[in-house]
Structures are given as structure tokens and as C-alpha cells.
Amino acid sequence: MAETRQTPTDTRRAEMFVAPEHDPRTRLHTTGDERSILTEVLAGQRATLELKCAGLGTELARRSVAPSTLSLLGLVRHLADIERHWFRRVLAGEEAPPLFTSVERPDDDFDGANTDPGSITAAWGAWRAEVAFADRFTTATSDLGLTGEDPGLGKVSLRWVLAHMIEEYARHNGHADLLRERIDGAVGL
Predict the structure, then answer these.
(1) 38 near 162, Cβ under 8 Å?
(2) What is the model's pTM?
(3) Which of 12, 18, 108, 116 is the S-S candidate for 112 at Cβ 3.0 to 4.6 Å?
């Protein structure tokens, strides 16, 4: 049976996004099989992105510091396309073009993020749909050694993609920390 541990509830920051007793990320399995550990850590990183963006509307499109086009909404759009690339295109072999970028506009995931409520709703809908697809695909695949073909890297395994997605979310959640604090002062894990 997998062991769980409660993450520390002491904080160095005065305010948190969510009280520790209500934080879905505080109960972590620290032992268990490879699939459950990888998917749980990735789920925690995905939940962190949502928590960093919680309660915001058009502020999601607010840029960081000039000349950067980085915004929380841009991160949501970017990560929707990243999820789509690795799980639908590379691993599942689907014909699934990017949702927010193109050859002509390779940075439109960030550059195209705007305050239109419909754009915000569409970005969240796309991100949630891609996460749901990735979760279903991972659950239905019995072998983490399953491979797909990436145009730049060649053959990659589901195991590698899960580890890479954890890395991708961790890096961008660091950006989200700074962006959210700049918007309204909210800080937290």
C-alpha cells in the first residue's frame, strides 16, 4: 500500500491561495508504482496553475513587465498547446494542429492572449480538454514505455513525456507565482 505524507503547513508567506486543509495538493503519495507517482506529481503541477489563476477574469491577460508578453492567460494557452502536442500528436498519433500558434504566428499563445471574456473561456476550455485527453490516454495505456515520434527529438516514451510535462509545468508555475503576485499580491504554494 502506498504511503502518504502531509506536506508542511507552516508558511513563509503571510497569505496562501487556499488554506492547507482545503488544498488538493497537500496529500502526496511518497511511495507506490511509477505511474501513480508520475501522474500524481503532474496533477499537482496542473492544479498549481489553476490555483495561481483562480478568481481572476480579464486580469489573466495582464502582462508581466515590458517588453515581455508573458501573462497567466498566455501560460494557459501555451500549456494547452503543449499538452496537445505531446499527448495527441506525438503519443496518440492524431492529426491535431496547435490551437493557439501557427507557423506564421509561433508566439501567438502569448501574443494573442487578450482580455476578451470569450477568449479567456476558450483558453480554459481548451486547456481542460487537453488535460482530460492526456489523463484518459495515460490511464488507458498499460506500458509507460509506449513510444511516439516527435519531429525534433525522434522517438519518445510516455514515461519521458510525463517527466517532461512535470518539468514544463514546474517552470511555468514559477512564472505564474510572479505574475499573480504582481496582479493582486496573492502568493502561495
Answers:
(1) yes
(2) 0.80
(3) 108
